[in-house]
Write a structure and sequence with these properties.
By secondary structure, the chain is α/β, with parallel strands linked by helices. Helix content is about 65%, strand content about 10%. The C terminus is likely disordered.
Length: about 600
């Protein structure tokens, strides 16, 4: 699935979304309920001041009751202090629960992410992945509790104020509530536009993050090709696009507040006119009118809060729907229901009539047939783009074949448990990824249970000891993100040592020395020879001089197996493709040496 194409089609299915988020809220439900219970008196206490104005006007200002003149202001202060304490507790609980729920969602999503197959990463940029797996869950899960809490407090405040209004005059209350309901209608009219703008804004946010990632990772290309202005302009275009989307939403949503205010003002004017008539005719006291008008004025705030909260909630439901779309994604590469564990390889690996394509109807491999025996080294050579790396990627099931089968010991690798299959394969790439951390930590990723003696053994075998003594902390030196503090040859040797520590029976070497200079290549080649001992090895090499000792060599041309045999056999083929490749490289090397 291409995450950028998400339409958040379920963003209006509130019951479904709340049911799914409830799974993550449930462990903290006790505190959530306490927070909502506290939110009720926080809102209800809004009605205290409005209610207190009636006795203050009627009993203090008109009847001169001095005791109430002292008690009412003091009581208002005490109620305000109580409301402040409750509001603090409510905010703390809401934030605590919100962050816990957010963390739970992120942890569950990350578990899904690390099990996605390479095609998922092929289809989606880093920025989109970061936005969908970090920003969307944060917006959805933390915000939902905050906004429901705010809606609860505002709702109970509105109920309390309406209660005060009804107590003072049900006729005026009917007018006031009817007007405020009309003022609330614009919120319902704009929710679809909020959904569209929120979805588009989240996509643009992913593009923005991608731009940052590409600028960071491609900084040398940017410098070498003077792309600073180009990259900066891309960023400006992205920022402007986000601005246009946000302003489009503001333009449509911004008129809600003034319209609500205008409608509320009409209501207040009607109430004042009718209320004055009731006071003059003796049907209502001055205190009741003052209390009622104050309640109506105070009611505008919670109504507006509820309107804004519902607007925010629609954005949250978009983010929530996008988040649960991720939970519904399943990797294309997964275990069969009755998959078995691959315990020990006895015979070898075979390709039987293998066809493969990355994109539909664009074949990459065509009817590949290979049989690699246990302990044999097979070199894959050919022109760039011919399908050599694809063959290597199919063995650990980074991708699955379109038709045909790859078998280990006569069993289709799709019938093995994926984890056990990959436990039997170690890979050394051309540009090996090292994780931020120490050299030791990177080695242990090959085998977390390795002993110090085993680590020392692979350090020697991979010729790491030749440069470790120069490191400030030896094997415990921190090498930073992607191992950038190491040279290319040093990174390769760390990767080889990691593969040695895994001690897998199948080794895949994908252009493991092609990016190195002659000196580094010679050292790395020695390390590779130690890695390859007594293993079944697939070697992909551009420099044919590095694979002349392979047991057999397969020439892959335009996705087809063109030739296979030993170095001597292939060199003896008249007009052979391998011989042509070899002579071209030999002549080129000879010319360079002159």
């Amino acid at each position: 699935m291409k995450l950028k194409n998400s339409q958040a089609l379920g963003a209006f299915n509130y019951a479904y979304l709340l049911k799914r988020i409830y799974v993550f809220i449930k462990p903290y439900l006790g505190r959530v309920i306490i927070g909502f219970i506290i939110a009720i008196p926080v809102g209800l206490l809004d009605g205290v001041v409005a209610y207190a104005l009636k006795p203050y006007m009627d009993e203090v200002l008109i009847k001169k009751n001095m005791l109430l003149a002292f008690l009412i202001p003091f009581g208002i202060i005490m109620f305000a202090a109580l409301q402040g304490v409750l509001r603090y507790l409510n905010d703390y609980l809401a934030n605590w629960c919100g962050q816990k729920v957010t963390n739970s969602v992120k942890i569950a999503l990350f578990d899904r992410l690390v099990h996605m197959d390479p095609k998922f990463y092929d289809d989606n940029s880093s920025g989109i992945v970061l936005t969908r797996y970090l920003s969307d869950p944060d917006t959805a899960s933390r915000g939902i509790l905050d906004n429901i809490k705010a809606f609860t407090a505002a709702g109970t405040g509105a109920v309390a104020l309406i209660g005060v209004m009804l107590y003072n005059s049900w006729q005026l209350a009917l007018v006031g509530v009817l007007v405020l309901c009309v003022a609330f209608l614009p919120v319902a009219l704009i929710r679809k536009r909020i959904k569209a703008a929120s979805t588009k804004n989240m996509v643009l946010g992913g593009d923005l993050t991608t731009n940052f990632n590409e600028t960071y990772s491609g900084n040398k290309i940017i410098a070498a090709y003077n792309l600073s202005k180009h990259q900066h302009q891309k960023f400006i275009n992205n920022i402007n696009a986000m601005f246009d989307v946000n302003m489009s939403l503001v333009k449509r949503a911004g008129w809600m507040s003034p319209i609500m205010y205008l409608i509320a003002s009409v209501g207040i004017a009607l109430v004042l006119g009718y209320g004055t008539y009731l006071v003059i005719t003796g049907k209502m006291s001055s205190g009741s009118l003052l209390s009622f008008v104050t309640s109506l004025l105070l009611l505008y705030k919670p109504i507006k809060t509820m309107g804004n909260t519902l607007t925010s909630l629609q954005t949250l439901f978009v983010a929530m729907d996008r988040t649960f779309e991720l939970f519904d994604l399943n990797p294309d590469i997964a275990d069969k229901e009755n998959a078995v564990a691959l315990e020990q390889i006895k015979d070898g690996v075979s390709f039987e009539h293998v066809f493969f394509e990355y994109e539909k109807d664009v074949p990459v491999l065509k009817d590949i047939n290979l049989n690699v025996k246990l302990g044999e080294t097979l070199a894959l050579v050919g022109n760039s783009g011919g399908g050599k790396s694809t063959i290597a990627n199919l063995i650990p099931r980074f991708y699955d074949v379109k038709s045909g089968s790859i078998k280990i010991d006569g069993v289709d690798i799709r019938d093995y448990k994926l984890e056990s299959l990959r436990n039997n394969i170690a890979i050394v790439f051309q540009d090996n990824f090292l994780f931020s951390g120490t050299i030791r930590e990177n080695l242990l990723m090959g085998n977390f249970n390795a002993t110090d003696e085993q680590i020392e053994e692979v350090v020697r075998a991979a010729h790491l000891d030749e440069f470790l003594h120069e490191m400030p902390d030896g094997i415990d030196t921190y090498i930073g993100e992607r191992g950038t503090s190491l040279s290319g040859g040093q990174r390769q040797r760390v990767a080889i040592a990691r593969a040695m520590l895994k001690n897998a029976p199948i080794i895949i070497l994908d252009e493991a020395t092609s990016a190195l200079d002659n000196k580094s290549e010679a050292i790395v080649q020695k390390a590779l020879e130690n890695l390859m001992k007594n293993k079944t090895v697939f070697v992909i090499a551009h420099r044919l001089s590095t694979i002349s000792n392979a047991d057999r060599i397969a020439v892959i041309n335009e996705g087809e197996l063109a030739e296979i045999g030993t170095h001597e056999e292939l060199m003896n083929l008249p007009n052979g493709k391998y011989r042509l490749l070899y002579e071209m490289q030999f002549n080129k090397a000879e010319q360079l040496s002159v």
